[in-house]
Structure formats: structure tokens, C-alpha cells
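Entry for the shared binder. Reason: the reviewer on the internal report wants the predicted structure included alongside the sequence.
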Amino acid sequence: MTDNEKKLGWFGRLKQGLKKSSTALTEGITGIFTKKRLDASTLEELEDLLIMADLGVAVSGRVCDRLSKNRFDKSISAEEVQQALAEEIGEIMQDVAVPLTVSGEHSPHVILMVGVNGAGKTTTIGKLAKKFKNQGKSVMLAAGDTFRAAANEQLQIWGQRNDVPVVSGKEGCDAAGLAYDAIEQAKNSGTDILLIDTAGRLQNKSHLMDELKKIIRVIKKFDETAPHDTVLILDATTGQNAILQTEAFQEMAGISGIIMTKLDGTARGGVLVACAEKFKIPIHAIGVGESIDDLQPFDPSDFSKMLVGVEIE
């Protein structure tokens, strides 16, 4: 398969994955702006629609401000509104679109994966391991979610699929100690990248958050520069809960980047825009399905256009 075919395939999956979100926005905008002038009433309807799509109050306000400056009290089409929305979202997302890259400066380069249960951490680790291996890097996985036997088993399966070693312990063992052992093994074996899974911590479970802090402290005892990336996995279907999770994990673990999964399962894909506007944290990748190729680097232009139903030329 050529790179162009791969890109077209990803475009197709992204478009299909965002269909619920784009359809909700397109139908809503069309309903508001069919043969209507842009006035206070239509702006209020539009703002409500955007907030309900989880774009957030700040982003929704910015879009309405942009439209009111240029087109207030004039006729405006749904297509013009969609275009303005895509441009505003694209501008917001431009600065946060940052791929997850490994420079080779650290050996191993430690990536700590955090997020709540069910967000897709373990699956994302498996997909990242595959991508890094394809780049010629050696990879090791650490099964730091010691609360769930199923998480350990799932990571072992990804390890077998990718032919990479997995460091694991007994269910309920000390996750911080396991992380330390994994770094030691990765160091001794000359492994390039160590991906560490963690338990799915709900942000209101203080003892689990304390354990996450302990993992980070122990990692730093081995290498004070680590973890070199702390990546938060967010589930798009949770809507505004993604904002609350980002706040909590940013406070506890100092998030360096975000990967958003399950954009294909929701009409609330706008929450990624709200996160970008509020936190300015790099967005590394987005996921629109279960296959290995459904996790791709985040492209702000493609995403913004597809989210609001604007055709990509």
C-alpha cells in the first residue's frame, strides 16, 4: 500500500469516525441558518448548539464573535457558518498538534500512560508499540495496572502481537516497584522506549491518585528526567468529563500530551476542541477505531473540517 493510499484510507476512516459529530453539527447549523439573517436570536441558537456539541463555552463564544463582527444583520448560509467554524477550530488546534516523537536522547525513553478505566490506555499502548517498532525502535511494555488481571493479560497479548517484552507482576503488586524494575530491565537491555501502563484512576479516588504520584517519584529515583512523556488517554464519548479528567491528571501527574480515542463512537467530538482551547496541552494522536492504523497523528486542518462537515479539497 502506498503512502497516498494509506492517507486516503485514514481520511475515509476519520470522516466516518467523525460522522456522528459532523452530522449533529451540520443538521443543527442548517436548521438555524436556512434563509435567515444573522441576528441576536440566531447567534444565541448557534452558541447553544455548539455548547451542546461539547465545543465548550469559550470556543462557542469565539465562533459567534467572529460571525457577528463580519456578518451581523446580513443573510448568511449554513455553508458559510460551517466554514467560519472550521477556520476558528483550525486556529485553536494548530498550536497543539504535536506528534509523539522520541529523540533518542534518553535510554530508555520512558512514556507513562495515564487515564481512567475504559478510555483505551492498554490498546493505545499496543498501537504505539507497533508504530515505534515500525520506526526501527526497540520497545518494552510494563503492566503497571496491577489492580486488574485483565489489563495484564491484555498487555501480554499486545506484547506477543508486536514481539516486544512485557514486564509484569502478580495482581495487586506494588505498581511503583514494578515500574522501577521495568526501567532497570529496559536500561540493562539497551531498550529505546519503555511504555508504562497504569491503573485506570478515577479522579475522585485520592488513594489511586496518590499511587500515581508514587510511581512518578520512584521513576525519578532511577532517572530524574523521567517520565519523559506523560500521556493522558481520553475517551471522546465521555464529553465534558474529559475536561474534568484533564484537570485532575494535569494537577497530579503533569500531563505532557493527550491522545483521544473513540471519536467514532460519539456525536461529542467537539470536546477535543474544548480541551485544546482550555489547556493548550499537545494533542499527539486521535483514534477512530480498533485497528492498528486507526491511531494517527493529529492533523488540525483535516480534523476541524471533518468535524463540522466541510469537504476537504
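Summary line for the report: The first strand starts at residue 36 and ends at 37.
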